[in-house]
C-alpha cells in the first residue's frame, strides 16, 4: 500500500470512527458524498457533491431552507435559515474564491421574496447538491478532508415565523457535521484538451435553456461549460477570452477567479491591437476587473477588502492605492485601444470604437467635497465618431446625442448634427442649437411654418414666446393635418407660439368629431389654458369625465399640467381628490405637488385631515373585525400620497407650526420619518430666520413611455431638503421661499463639470441676499465668506 493511500485510509477511518459532537443527535443523519461515485478528481475538474439529510424521528427537524443557494436575486422566506460552512484540511493547496472578491462585488442584490413551504425531514433522505468548485479551487495535488458544518432547526414554536420577529426568542437548533476525503491529482494534457474542446463547442453552439426537470441537452451543456470555466489553465483562459470577445457575456464570471489571470490579460491585450478583433464592452470591462484582481493579489489586499479594512485607515489607504494603480493600468489599455482604432478594420473598428465611448477618462476628485467627473474625448475619437456614426446601431446613435453627449460635445460634431437635423432628427437639432445657435435657429424658423411639421416645439425652441406674423399659418397648417404624429407636432407649436387670435380657426376644428389620441388632445387643452382658460375649462371637464370612466389613463392632470399649470386644473384636482376616484385621484395629488400654487395649500391640508380621519376610523373598526382589507391598504397609500404632496410641494414650504400640526395628525413616529429623505431627525418645517441649506444636483435621464414634452429640457435636476426641483426655474422658485440671509452649500453630485449651472445658481443666491459657501474652492465661484 502506498503512503498516500495509507494516509487516505487513516483519514477515512478517523472520519467515521470519530464520536459525534455533543450537539449532534443520534436520530439525525447527515451524509456528505461525491455525486460522481468517485472521490478522485483532477486539478481543474468540477467537483459535485451531494448532502443527504434524514431523520428517524418524524416531524422533529426542519428541512434546510434554500441550502447552498448562490443566487443574489431575491430572498427566501424561510422559517429557519440554516447556517452552514465548509472547512478543508490541510489549510494550503486550495483557495476560497469568496475571499478573492473585490469590494464592489460584495454589494447585495435585490429582487422579490420567495415563499418556501414548511417541510420536515423524514427517514427518506432529502438530497441537496453543491458544486464545491464554485466556492473552492484546488491548485495542488494531495488529499483534502472537506467537512460540512450545518445548523438544523427544530420544528417547534421557536422556529415559527411569528417567532422570527421577536429578538428575545432563540431558535432551537442542533449542529450536524459530515466529511469527505477528496484525492486531487495532476491533470493529464489529454483530458485538459478534451475539456477545452467540449466547452468551446458548447459555448459556441445554441444556448441551452434550463427546464424543470433539466433536459439531457441542458445537462450536457452545463457540464461542458462548467468544466471549461473551472479548468483554470492558461490555454483555457485564452479560449474563454476568445469566447468573451464573441459576445458570450456569461464568460465574465469564468474569468473572474481564474488562476491564469495573467494569461487572460495578455490575450486581451493582444486583441486590443489585432486589426480584425472587435473589442466589446464586456471584454474591456473584464480586462479592468482582472487588472484590479491581479493588483489586489500581488499586494495581499484580498484579506483586507472586507469589514476589517473598513475599520482600518491604513488598510483603506492600501486598497485605494491599489485601485489607483489598476485604474492607471486600465487607462493605459484604453489609450492603446484608442491609438489602434485607425488600424482596426470594418466591424472590428465600429465595435471597438463603441467600446471606447463607454469608457471616458475621468477627472478624479482632489477634495472630499467634490466628486470626479467624466472628461470629453479627444479630437481623434470624435472624428472617428463622425466618420462611423451611420454604422452604429440606432440605440447607440440616440445614446450619443442624448445621455453621452457631454463625452463627444465638440465643434467637430457640427457637420454631423446639422446633417441629421436637416433629415428630421430632433435631438440632433438641439445639439446643433448648442454648437451653432444662429444657423440652427434660422433652420428652426423655417421648420415652424412647414405645412407638415417634422418637429414638435420640444425641439423647435425659438427665443420668441409668440409669433404674431406666423400664427395664422400655424393654425392653417394644423387644421389641414390628418396623421396623429403630425397633429401632435402642430398642436405643440400652437401651444408654444400662438395667441388667442387664432381661436376662431382652432376651436371649431378641435370640437369636431375626432379620434385623436390623448397626447394631441392634452396639448390642445394646454394651448386653450394658456390663451383662454374660459374656453379650456368646459372642454377639460368633459374629457376628465370621460377619462374617469376609462381608468387606463392615469396621468391626466400631470400630462396637461406639465404643459400649462392653471387654477382650472387646481380646482378639478381638488374635486378629484375629494371624490377619491382612482386612478386619477393620485395623479391629481401629484399635479398639486408639482404645480399647485400656494393658494391651494390649505385645501391640500383639508383633504389630508379628512382622509386621515377616515383611515383612522377604518383602522379602529378593523381592530375589532380582523385584518386590513385591500381597500384600506389603498386608502393608506392615498393618505401617504397626500402627505408627500403637502410636505414636499414645489409651490410652498411648511411653517414650524404646520409641521407640528402634521405630527399631531399622523403621530410622532410617522412624521419623524418624513425628514429621512434628506436628514433623519431634522425638521420638515422652515423657520422664519436664516438657516443652512444644501443643494444637490443630479443628471436628468429621459423617462421612458412619456409624452415628449414631459422630457426634461435641462441637463440637471436639483434637491433642497425634501424638495425636488425639476429644473433651474423650479430651483430658483424654491430658493425664494426660504428665509433671506440663509447660507447654501453645493453638495453631491456637483463637480466642476457643472460650472455653468453652479455659477448661475451662485449669482442668483448672492443677488437675492443669500450666502454661498465654497468649500470645494472652485475658482469660478466666490471664495468662502468670512466666518
Characteristic key phrases:
787 residues; alpha/beta; five-stranded mixed β-sheet; 31 helices; globular
Describe the structure.
It is globular, with a radius of gyration of 33 Å. Residues 1-22 have low confidence and may be disordered. The chain is an alpha/beta fold. The termini are far apart.
Provide the β-strand percentage band.
5-15%
Question: Would you count the extended β strands for me?
Answer: 18
Q: Which structural class fits the helix and strand makeup?
A: alpha/beta
Radius of gyration: 33 Å
Which residues form runs of ≥5 with pLDDT under 50?
A: 1-22
Helix content: 40-55%
Strand order of the largest sheet: 16-15-14-17-18
Biggest sheet features: 5 strands, mixed
The mean pLDDT is 88
Measure the end-to-end span: 85 Å
Annotation field: number of helices = 31
Shape: globular
Q: Concise description?
A:
47% of the residues lie in helices and 12% in strands.
Structural topology:
Blueprint: H1 3-17, E1 28-34, E2 40-42, E3 48-55, E4 75-77, E5 84-89, E6 94-96, E7 113-115, E8 126-131, E9 136-138, E10 142-153, H2 161-164, E11 173-185, H3 189-204, H4 216-231, H5 234-244, H6 252-256, H7 261-273, H8 281-298, H9 307-310, H10 313-340, H11 347-357, E12 362-363, E13 373-374, H12 379-388, H13 394-401, H14 405-408, H15 414-422, H16 426-435, H17 437-448, H18 471-479, H19 484-497, H20 503-511, H21 518-531, H22 533-548, H23 556-563, H24 567-579, H25 584-595, H26 601-625, H27 630-648, H28 656-666, H29 668-672, E14 692-699, E15 716-720, E16 723-725, H30 728-735, E17 743-746, H31 755-767, E18 771-772
Parallel strand pairs: 2-11, 4-7, 14-17, 17-18
Antiparallel strand pairs: 1-3, 3-8, 5-10, 6-9, 10-11, 12-13, 14-15, 15-16
Helix pairs in contact: 3-4, 3-5, 5-7, 7-8, 8-10, 11-12, 15-16, 16-17, 18-19, 19-21, 21-22, 21-23, 23-25, 24-25, 25-27, 26-27
